[in-house]
Amino acid sequence: MADKVRVGVLISGRGSNLEALADYKRKADPAYEIVVVASNVPEARGLVLAKRFDIPTWAQSHKGVKRAEFDALVDAELRRSGVEVIALAGYMRLLSPEFIHGWNHRILNIHPSLLPDYKGLDTHQRALMGGEEYAGCSVHVVTEELDDGPVIAQARVRVQARDTAETLAQRVLVEEHKLYPAALDAFCRKLLADRAAS
Fold first, then answer.
1. Structurally, how many domains does the chain consist of?
2. Active site residues
3. Distances from the Cα of 161 to the Cαs of 117, 158, 167, in angstroms?
4. What is the chain's pLDDT, residue by residue, as a tens digit (198 residues)?
5. Rg of the chain over CA atoms, in angstroms?
6. Which residues are CB-contacts of 47 (< 8 A; sequence separation ≥ 6)?
7. What is the CATH number of the domain that holds 86?
8. In which domain, by residue range, is 23 found?
9. Residue 159 in 3-state DSSP?
C-alpha cells in the first residue's frame, strides 16, 4: 500500500507494544507507518528498540514542566514529523485536554482490561479480586475521561484458578501484542477509505 497513515507512538517504558506495532509489517502490509517515537522518559528502553527499527526518536523529561507546556512540546514534535494518528503504548502520563482536543479522535490507547471494567491502574489484581471469569485488553479512542473513549477492539483471556496479577498480566500482554497492531491497522484503513471517499 503506497499511501500509509503516519503514526507517532508515545512510550514511557520498555516498549513491548511499540515493538509489536513496528514488527507487524513482517506479518502484514499495514496501513500505517511509524514515523516517530516520543517519550517523557529519556532513558526508556523503548527508545533503544525504536532505533533498532530505524524510527526517529524524541525524548524529554516531563519533570518540572507543567502538563500543558510539556504536551505542547510533544505536540510540536509530532506535527513536525507529519504525524496523523497517535498510538499510546505504555505512555504513563495523563494527556492535557488541550492536547486531546488538538488530536480529536486520532489518539488510540491499549488498556489492560475489558473496558468499561477496571479503568486506571492495577487492572489485573482488581479483576482477580472481582472474581472475573475473563480478563483481557481493549484498544480505545482517547478522550478527556480516563480510559473512557469508544472501544474499537478487545481480546479476552480466561482467568485461571492459580492466577496471580503477574501471571495474568503476562498472558494479557501476549494478547495486547496481537490486538494492538491489528486494531491500529484497521483504524488507519478506515481513515484512508474515508479520505478517499470524501
1. 1
2. 111
3. 20, 10, 11
4. 458 999 999 999 999 999 999 999 998 999 999 999 999 999 999 999 999 999 999 999 999 999 999 999 999 999 999 999 999 999 999 999 999 999 999 999 999 999 999 999 999 999 999 999 999 999 999 999 999 999 999 999 999 999 999 999 999 999 999 999 999 999 999 999 999 998
5. 17
6. 11, 15, 37, 39, 57, 59
7. 3.40.50.170
8. 5-197
9. coil
